[in-house]
């Protein structure tokens, strides 16, 4: 459909390139535009707005995801200049702010995997929770308590709203602040399952993840890894984890979550720790 929509604006090769760099989140479209097509960005935005009936805004992603809050700069190309929207995933509803708090629709398979692994009665610590996507999906699926920590106040406030709209008050607790500090203050040895979805800085936060996790608990350790062969990425991240962890760890499994660059992957290693 999009290829047809862009037929009069771009060559088939150009539209192919554009479509792989494209996210639709609720009624917002975000498009990454290669430098070679930047002079056509307005017409691309206007065409997408016209052709995608549910879209109300089209933004150009003007920076990479960056900084402590893992956010990106957006530039309006067409439609309403608002960055909040409602996004639905597996029966949960979320208000997200695509510019001021981290959000990626590309993690939905991983969110479902973690929700399926979680057992009734568990305490989960989500150290880098954003607007609460993983926290809410897990608590919607299993009877558990989730501490949902984020340092970005915009993300923590949206998480509070999302907890209320998904009727999970008391099951998910949104806490604003630095995960290491919060864990030291009140969450040591509390967690059956710890999520550390800040892959660029996992090694730095591993000790805090261990501190919050009970003896016999599980850590989902996310990282970024270079691998010449895609099939090696999981094993390489297991090896890296085992080299840096200070505790006895049983590897339960590992996998690629998503590609993040040429021969560069976001991976997750699931480990059971003993301490
Ligand atoms: N898990 C969420 C999701 O999948 O939507 C968000 C993951 S995002 C990659 C990483 C998050 O970590 C950002 O929302 C950022 O604000 C937060 N963050 C960065 N440093 C932090 C810290 N020291 N303590 C707590 N949160 C932090």
Task: Note the topology.
Layout: H1 2-5, H2 12-19, E1 22-25, E2 28-31, H3 41-51, E3 57-61, E4 74-79, E5 84-89, E6 92-97, H4 108-117, E7 123-126, H5 133-141, E8 145-150, H6 153-165, E9 172-176, H7 179-186, E10 191-196, H8 202-212, E11 213-226, H9 233-244, E12 248-261, E13 264-274
Parallel strand pairs: 2-3, 7-8, 7-10, 8-9, 10-11
Antiparallel strand pairs: 1-2, 3-4, 5-6, 11-13, 12-13
Helix pairs in contact: 4-5, 7-8
This protein binds S-adenosylmethionine.
S-adenosylmethionine (SAM) binds near residues 129 and 179.
Distance between the termini: 54 Å
- In total, the number of domains comes to 2
Strand element count: 13
Q: Helicity, in percent?
A: 25-40%
Low-confidence stretches: none
Name given to the CATH architecture of the largest domain: 3-Layer(aba) Sandwich
Beta-strand content estimate: 25-35%
The name CATH uses for the topology of the largest domain is: Rossmann fold
Largest sheet: 7 strands, mixed
Number of helices: 9
On the 0 to 100 scale, the average pLDDT is 95
The fourth-level CATH homologous superfamily of the largest domain is: Vaccinia Virus protein VP39
* Integer-rounded radius of gyration: 20 Å
Q: Give the overall silhouette.
A: globular
Hetero groups in this structure are: S-adenosylmethionine
What is the ordering of alpha helices and beta strands?
HHEEHEEEEHEHEHEHEHEHEE
